[in-house]
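Hi everyone, sorry if this is the wrong subforum. Our group has a chain we'd like a structural model of before ordering constructs, and none of us has done structure prediction before. Sequence below.
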Amino acid sequence: MSPNALIPSHRKPRRPSASSRALRAGVTGGFLTLAVTGATVPANAAEKPVSETQEMPTITTALATSAARSADTAEQVAFNYERQALQDSAFSHAAKAAEKHKAEAVKKAKAEAKKKAEEARKAKEAAEARASRSSERSTLSAPSSSTATGNTATLVSFLKAQLGKAYVLGSSGPSSYDCSGLTQAAFSQIGIDLPRVSQDQSTQGTQVGLDNLQVGDILYWGSAGSAYHVGVYIGDGKFIGAQNSSTGIVERPLDYDMPTGAVRVL
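Answer:
Right subforum, don't worry. Here is the predicted structure as C-alpha coordinates:
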Protein backbone atom coordinates (compact mmCIF):
# COMPACT_ATOMS: atom_id res chain seq x y z
CA MET A 1 0.00 0.00 0.00
CA SER A 2 1.24 3.40 -0.85
CA PRO A 3 1.98 5.70 2.00
CA ASN A 4 -0.37 8.23 0.51
CA ALA A 5 -3.36 5.91 0.21
CA LEU A 6 -4.81 6.89 3.52
CA ILE A 7 -4.68 10.59 2.78
CA PRO A 8 -8.09 11.72 1.49
CA SER A 9 -6.69 14.41 -0.72
CA HIS A 10 -4.76 11.85 -2.60
CA ARG A 11 -7.79 9.62 -3.28
CA LYS A 12 -9.10 9.58 -6.79
CA PRO A 13 -12.54 10.92 -6.96
CA ARG A 14 -15.24 8.32 -7.67
CA ARG A 15 -17.11 8.94 -10.90
CA PRO A 16 -20.74 9.11 -10.32
CA SER A 17 -22.91 6.57 -12.00
CA ALA A 18 -25.59 7.40 -14.49
CA SER A 19 -28.30 6.79 -11.97
CA SER A 20 -26.64 9.08 -9.46
CA ARG A 21 -26.41 11.79 -12.07
CA ALA A 22 -30.07 11.38 -12.88
CA LEU A 23 -30.92 11.65 -9.23
CA ARG A 24 -28.86 14.78 -8.76
CA ALA A 25 -30.25 16.25 -11.84
CA GLY A 26 -33.69 15.51 -10.55
CA VAL A 27 -32.99 17.19 -7.30
CA THR A 28 -31.44 20.17 -8.95
CA GLY A 29 -33.81 20.63 -11.88
CA GLY A 30 -37.17 19.92 -10.29
CA PHE A 31 -39.78 19.58 -13.03
CA LEU A 32 -37.04 19.25 -15.73
CA THR A 33 -36.20 15.72 -14.49
CA LEU A 34 -37.66 14.05 -17.59
CA ALA A 35 -35.52 16.09 -19.96
CA VAL A 36 -32.31 15.56 -18.02
CA THR A 37 -32.63 11.84 -17.39
CA GLY A 38 -32.46 11.12 -21.08
CA ALA A 39 -32.38 7.42 -21.86
CA THR A 40 -33.05 6.38 -18.34
CA VAL A 41 -36.65 7.82 -18.51
CA PRO A 42 -39.25 5.33 -19.70
CA ALA A 43 -40.56 5.84 -23.24
CA ASN A 44 -44.15 6.33 -22.19
CA ALA A 45 -43.08 9.10 -19.80
CA ALA A 46 -41.41 10.98 -22.67
CA GLU A 47 -44.56 10.83 -24.82
CA LYS A 48 -46.88 12.23 -22.18
CA PRO A 49 -46.19 15.91 -22.90
CA VAL A 50 -46.95 15.23 -26.59
CA SER A 51 -50.39 13.85 -25.77
CA GLU A 52 -51.04 16.83 -23.52
CA THR A 53 -50.23 19.29 -26.32
CA GLN A 54 -52.53 17.43 -28.75
CA GLU A 55 -55.54 18.24 -26.55
CA MET A 56 -55.43 21.94 -27.58
CA PRO A 57 -57.03 21.54 -31.03
CA THR A 58 -59.92 19.63 -29.36
CA ILE A 59 -60.54 22.52 -26.96
CA THR A 60 -60.38 25.05 -29.83
CA THR A 61 -62.94 23.13 -31.90
CA ALA A 62 -65.36 22.99 -28.96
CA LEU A 63 -65.07 26.73 -28.47
CA ALA A 64 -65.70 27.35 -32.18
CA THR A 65 -68.77 25.10 -32.09
CA SER A 66 -70.10 26.89 -29.01
CA ALA A 67 -69.56 30.28 -30.67
CA ALA A 68 -71.37 29.13 -33.83
CA ARG A 69 -74.29 27.94 -31.76
CA SER A 70 -74.39 31.25 -29.91
CA ALA A 71 -74.44 33.08 -33.26
CA ASP A 72 -77.28 30.89 -34.51
CA THR A 73 -79.20 31.50 -31.32
CA ALA A 74 -78.70 35.26 -31.60
CA GLU A 75 -79.84 35.18 -35.23
CA GLN A 76 -82.94 33.17 -34.32
CA VAL A 77 -83.76 35.60 -31.49
CA ALA A 78 -83.39 38.54 -33.88
CA PHE A 79 -85.63 36.81 -36.43
CA ASN A 80 -88.23 36.12 -33.75
CA TYR A 81 -88.19 39.77 -32.66
CA GLU A 82 -88.59 40.92 -36.28
CA ARG A 83 -91.44 38.50 -36.92
CA GLN A 84 -93.17 39.58 -33.73
CA ALA A 85 -92.78 43.24 -34.73
CA LEU A 86 -94.35 42.53 -38.13
CA GLN A 87 -97.24 40.67 -36.50
CA ASP A 88 -97.79 43.49 -34.03
CA SER A 89 -97.81 46.01 -36.88
CA ALA A 90 -100.29 43.92 -38.87
CA PHE A 91 -102.54 43.53 -35.84
CA SER A 92 -102.36 47.27 -35.20
CA HIS A 93 -103.38 48.10 -38.79
CA ALA A 94 -106.18 45.53 -38.65
CA ALA A 95 -107.45 46.96 -35.37
CA LYS A 96 -107.44 50.50 -36.76
CA ALA A 97 -109.29 49.39 -39.90
CA ALA A 98 -111.86 47.51 -37.82
CA GLU A 99 -112.36 50.54 -35.60
CA LYS A 100 -112.87 52.76 -38.66
CA HIS A 101 -115.40 50.35 -40.17
CA LYS A 102 -117.20 50.14 -36.83
CA ALA A 103 -117.40 53.93 -36.58
CA GLU A 104 -118.77 54.16 -40.13
CA ALA A 105 -121.33 51.43 -39.41
CA VAL A 106 -122.45 53.18 -36.22
CA LYS A 107 -122.74 56.49 -38.07
CA LYS A 108 -124.77 54.87 -40.85
CA ALA A 109 -127.02 53.09 -38.34
CA LYS A 110 -127.66 56.35 -36.51
CA ALA A 111 -128.54 58.08 -39.78
CA GLU A 112 -130.93 55.26 -40.70
CA ALA A 113 -132.51 55.35 -37.25
CA LYS A 114 -132.92 59.11 -37.47
CA LYS A 115 -134.51 58.80 -40.91
CA LYS A 116 -136.92 56.10 -39.74
CA ALA A 117 -137.80 58.12 -36.65
CA GLU A 118 -138.57 61.13 -38.84
CA GLU A 119 -140.70 59.02 -41.16
CA ALA A 120 -142.54 57.55 -38.18
CA ARG A 121 -143.13 61.03 -36.77
CA LYS A 122 -144.58 62.28 -40.06
CA ALA A 123 -146.75 59.17 -40.40
CA LYS A 124 -148.03 59.66 -36.85
CA GLU A 125 -148.85 63.31 -37.50
CA ALA A 126 -150.66 62.39 -40.72
CA ALA A 127 -152.63 59.67 -38.92
CA GLU A 128 -153.56 62.05 -36.13
CA ALA A 129 -154.67 64.66 -38.66
CA ARG A 130 -156.84 62.09 -40.46
CA ALA A 131 -158.29 60.89 -37.19
CA SER A 132 -159.09 64.47 -36.24
CA ARG A 133 -160.82 65.13 -39.56
CA SER A 134 -162.68 61.84 -39.28
CA SER A 135 -163.86 62.76 -35.80
CA GLU A 136 -165.03 66.13 -37.04
CA ARG A 137 -166.85 64.53 -39.98
CA SER A 138 -168.49 61.98 -37.69
CA THR A 139 -169.79 64.78 -35.53
CA LEU A 140 -171.07 66.73 -38.52
CA SER A 141 -172.71 63.73 -40.16
CA ALA A 142 -174.53 62.40 -37.07
CA PRO A 143 -178.21 61.77 -37.99
CA SER A 144 -179.44 63.78 -35.02
CA SER A 145 -177.21 66.76 -35.75
CA SER A 146 -178.99 69.81 -37.09
CA THR A 147 -175.57 71.19 -37.98
CA ALA A 148 -175.01 68.33 -40.42
CA THR A 149 -178.35 68.96 -42.06
CA GLY A 150 -177.58 72.63 -42.26
CA ASN A 151 -174.17 71.93 -43.80
CA THR A 152 -175.47 69.63 -46.51
CA ALA A 153 -178.32 72.05 -47.28
CA THR A 154 -175.83 74.92 -47.59
CA LEU A 155 -173.54 72.80 -49.77
CA VAL A 156 -176.29 71.71 -52.17
CA SER A 157 -177.71 75.24 -52.31
CA PHE A 158 -174.33 76.65 -53.32
CA LEU A 159 -173.80 73.99 -56.02
CA LYS A 160 -177.21 74.60 -57.58
CA ALA A 161 -176.51 78.31 -57.64
CA GLN A 162 -173.50 77.61 -59.89
CA LEU A 163 -175.44 75.63 -62.54
CA GLY A 164 -174.96 77.01 -66.03
CA LYS A 165 -171.66 78.74 -65.30
CA ALA A 166 -168.71 78.11 -67.60
CA TYR A 167 -166.09 75.42 -67.26
CA VAL A 168 -162.60 76.94 -67.41
CA LEU A 169 -159.58 74.79 -66.67
CA GLY A 170 -157.76 76.07 -63.57
CA SER A 171 -160.57 78.40 -62.52
CA SER A 172 -162.08 78.36 -59.02
CA GLY A 173 -164.87 80.95 -59.34
CA PRO A 174 -166.84 82.88 -58.91
CA SER A 175 -167.92 83.18 -62.58
CA SER A 176 -166.30 79.96 -63.84
CA TYR A 177 -164.83 76.78 -62.44
CA ASP A 178 -163.10 73.55 -63.32
CA CYS A 179 -164.27 70.34 -61.60
CA SER A 180 -162.00 70.46 -58.54
CA GLY A 181 -162.29 74.25 -58.29
CA LEU A 182 -166.07 73.88 -57.94
CA THR A 183 -165.90 71.23 -55.18
CA GLN A 184 -163.26 73.22 -53.29
CA ALA A 185 -165.40 76.38 -53.43
CA ALA A 186 -168.55 74.47 -52.38
CA PHE A 187 -166.98 72.85 -49.29
CA SER A 188 -165.35 76.09 -48.24
CA GLN A 189 -168.91 77.40 -47.69
CA ILE A 190 -169.25 75.02 -44.74
CA GLY A 191 -165.73 75.45 -43.37
CA ILE A 192 -164.00 72.43 -44.95
CA ASP A 193 -160.73 73.07 -46.77
CA LEU A 194 -160.11 70.67 -49.64
CA PRO A 195 -156.92 70.30 -51.71
CA ARG A 196 -157.04 72.07 -55.05
CA VAL A 197 -156.72 69.17 -57.51
CA SER A 198 -158.83 66.07 -58.21
CA GLN A 199 -156.04 63.60 -57.38
CA ASP A 200 -155.72 64.88 -53.82
CA GLN A 201 -159.46 65.33 -53.28
CA SER A 202 -160.01 61.65 -54.15
CA THR A 203 -157.98 60.59 -51.09
CA GLN A 204 -159.64 62.88 -48.51
CA GLY A 205 -161.93 61.57 -45.82
CA THR A 206 -163.18 57.99 -45.91
CA GLN A 207 -163.68 55.84 -48.98
CA VAL A 208 -167.35 54.78 -49.38
CA GLY A 209 -169.12 52.43 -51.77
CA LEU A 210 -171.31 53.76 -54.57
CA ASP A 211 -174.23 51.80 -53.10
CA ASN A 212 -173.92 53.67 -49.81
CA LEU A 213 -173.76 57.29 -50.95
CA GLN A 214 -174.89 60.22 -48.81
CA VAL A 215 -175.57 63.85 -49.76
CA GLY A 216 -172.29 65.73 -49.82
CA ASP A 217 -170.06 62.76 -50.78
CA ILE A 218 -167.36 63.62 -53.31
CA LEU A 219 -167.49 61.43 -56.43
CA TYR A 220 -164.32 60.76 -58.42
CA TRP A 221 -163.48 59.25 -61.78
CA GLY A 222 -160.24 57.29 -62.14
CA SER A 223 -158.43 55.63 -59.23
CA ALA A 224 -158.00 57.12 -55.76
CA GLY A 225 -154.91 59.27 -55.73
CA SER A 226 -154.85 59.67 -59.52
CA ALA A 227 -158.45 60.77 -60.25
CA TYR A 228 -158.94 62.95 -63.31
CA HIS A 229 -162.45 64.30 -62.47
CA VAL A 230 -164.65 65.01 -59.40
CA GLY A 231 -168.26 66.00 -58.62
CA VAL A 232 -170.60 66.18 -55.60
CA TYR A 233 -173.50 63.80 -54.87
CA ILE A 234 -176.69 65.77 -54.07
CA GLY A 235 -179.06 62.84 -53.42
CA ASP A 236 -181.77 61.09 -55.47
CA GLY A 237 -179.10 59.42 -57.61
CA LYS A 238 -177.80 62.74 -58.98
CA PHE A 239 -174.59 64.80 -58.85
CA ILE A 240 -173.46 68.31 -59.77
CA GLY A 241 -170.11 68.94 -61.41
CA ALA A 242 -168.19 71.17 -63.79
CA GLN A 243 -168.06 68.65 -66.63
CA ASN A 244 -166.27 70.26 -69.56
CA SER A 245 -166.03 73.42 -71.62
CA SER A 246 -169.01 72.34 -73.75
CA THR A 247 -171.53 71.69 -70.97
CA GLY A 248 -170.17 73.88 -68.17
CA ILE A 249 -171.58 73.22 -64.68
CA VAL A 250 -174.46 70.74 -64.85
CA GLU A 251 -176.64 68.43 -62.79
CA ARG A 252 -176.67 64.80 -64.05
CA PRO A 253 -177.83 61.33 -62.95
CA LEU A 254 -175.11 58.92 -61.89
CA ASP A 255 -175.71 56.69 -64.92
CA TYR A 256 -174.88 59.64 -67.16
CA ASP A 257 -171.25 58.98 -66.33
CA MET A 258 -170.86 56.40 -63.56
CA PRO A 259 -168.06 57.43 -61.14
CA THR A 260 -165.31 55.08 -60.04
CA GLY A 261 -165.55 55.75 -56.30
CA ALA A 262 -166.48 58.22 -53.59
CA VAL A 263 -165.09 59.76 -50.39
CA ARG A 264 -166.98 61.19 -47.44
CA VAL A 265 -165.69 64.36 -45.80
CA LEU A 266 -168.86 65.38 -43.94
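For your construct planning: The first strand starts at residue 166 and ends at 167. Helices lie at 18-29, 33-37, 43-53, 55-140, 146-161, 179-188, 198-201.
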